[in-house]
Amino acid sequence: MSLSGLTVPPRIAPVALVRHLALPVAIVLVFALFGALQPAMLSEANLVNILKQSALFFFVAAAQLMVLITRGFDLSVGANISLVSVVSSMVMTGLVSTLGAPVAIAAGIATGIGIGGLIGAINGFFVAIVGINAFVVTLATMSVIGGIATTVSGGFPIFNLPEGFGWAFNQARWLILPAPVMLAALVGLGLHFVLSGTVHGRVLYILGDSPQAAHVAGRRVRAHHFFAYVWAGVLAAMAGLLMTAQTGSGEPNLGTSVVLTSVAAAVVGGASLRGGTGTVLAPILGALLITALSVGMNLEQINGALQPVVVGVILVVGAGLDAWRNARQG
């Protein structure tokens, strides 16, 4: 609209403005609250730690985002992380003495990514091609993969990883950012491009809006649906590799607690359980909120048993906001 030669920007509806600013404001309030209670919360070292932890968690939440957009979800991400952690660690420790650390690390990373992609492909085949409910499929693969992770490791951690692995992917700075944060930033940019600038991304959103589209459009749309689960598997594998670099060992239970929190992070960040919505900001903001809450509660020495309660509340709040948004749009 023009007034006396000046262009007046369109008004932003107050409800929409509140909806977009609510989560960033909530994150600021969390930092302010715990910073007032524990000054260490706002120390440089702790802020770097929160960024690193959020970056690791971003990958798991992003994995959920890819399938939530299609009106699905992936219960196997935690078991995926555990299996990748164990097997990639076994590959690295098995090869380092004969082929050297660089080759062993590269082989371990390739193995981990390959395992994640394979798990995603199995999920995608049964969900997108065969047509079995995502809950049933990923619950089954969660059980099977978790059992394999425990079996191949004997239930014990895998130690003696090459020192360069932990340094390069956890302690080092890439340019000015910690390695996990830089990796998360690069992957986030890639996901943003895929979701907003490619046919593949547009089809995923259409699948979430109208699941019947797969039956109408046929094989090509089902292939896009299939690859949503492959990307989820790869992203979870990347989380497993980075978490392994952080812990310094392959852990058969590394991903046990991330399933609910990854869904909560994606949903509270703006993804919808009904499918069809959500951008890369969802796992970024959701991961930051949950990580800040967790670190703040730890600094306050709040009983760790209460943290899953907080995550559950966040999931309910996110689902409630999602239902409210859909009711307004309807």
Automatic annotation (TrEMBL):
CDD domains referenced in this protein's UniProt entry, alphabetically: TM_PBP1_transp_AraH_like (cd06579)
InterPro entries, alphabetized: ABC_transp_permease
Keyword Nucleus assigned: no
Main localisation: membrane
CC per GO annotation: plasma membrane
Location in or out of the cell: Cell membrane
Pfam families given in the database record: BPD_transp_2 (PF02653)
Transmembrane segments: 21-38, 50-70, 77-97, 103-127, 134-159, 179-205, 226-248, 254-273, 280-299, 305-324
Gene Ontology MF annotations: transmembrane transporter activity
Protein name: Sugar ABC transporter permease
Membrane topology designation: Multi-pass membrane protein
Keywords from the UniProt entry: Cell inner membrane, Cell membrane, Membrane, Transmembrane, Transmembrane helix, Transport
